[in-house]
């Protein structure tokens, strides 16, 4: 397996991207309270995530509350939840496919061509997972920045970018890079198989040679 660094590096990055996507999905620091006012004394800090909202008080106590009704959530939050779950599911499916596509892994009944297709499918799934993570993270960041710069939004309702968004960007980059490496490894295998010289087979006599031999036989029989 050491001779094929692209698929192995892709799977490692895919595993890191899966861990990052799972952490970004579960962490509540998507939106954090912004310190916009003139007062430097802050008694509490608000965190808002996909599944819960938390309040961190000055006494270092943290209180979290899960969101109640799913239908009462904003459509953007519901879409972000769905996309992050899709990303985690695609990554979980892509990892075993990519592992089975490695040439050093013994797979019963699978040829080299089938392993190449598995590797390509794993790369496509990682690319889709990266896009699924990048979309809600970037959309949420754009909404936070837009509300922060809007004068119509009250200072107490302004939010800043949380740590989960940066983790989501890193996970999306790792997943996209993993997909690119796996797809690149698949293309290299297919290109190498297409330029491979066929094994030499038994040499068949040329058509002209067969005709000459037949004519020689006929000539010999006429003389006899």
From TrEMBL:
User: What cellular-component terms does GO give this entry?
Assistant: bicellular tight junction; plasma membrane
Name the Gene3D superfamilies for this protein. Answer: 1.20.140.150
Which Pfam families does this one have?
PMP22_Claudin (PF00822)
Q: Which residues cross the membrane?
A: 79-97, 118-141, 161-183
Keywords of the record, alphabetical order, are: Cell junction, Cell membrane, Membrane, Tight junction, Transmembrane, Transmembrane helix
Q: Where in the cell is it found?
A: Cell junction, Tight junction; Cell membrane
Topological type in the membrane: Multi-pass membrane protein
* GO MF term list: structural molecule activity
The reply to whether Transmembrane figures as a keyword in the UniProt entry is yes
Q: What's this chain's function?
A: Claudins function as major constituents of the tight junction complexes that regulate the permeability of epithelia.
Q: Which PANTHER family match?
A: CLAUDIN
Family assignment from sequence similarity: Belongs to the claudin family.
Name of the protein:
Claudin
Record organism:
Phyllostomus discolor
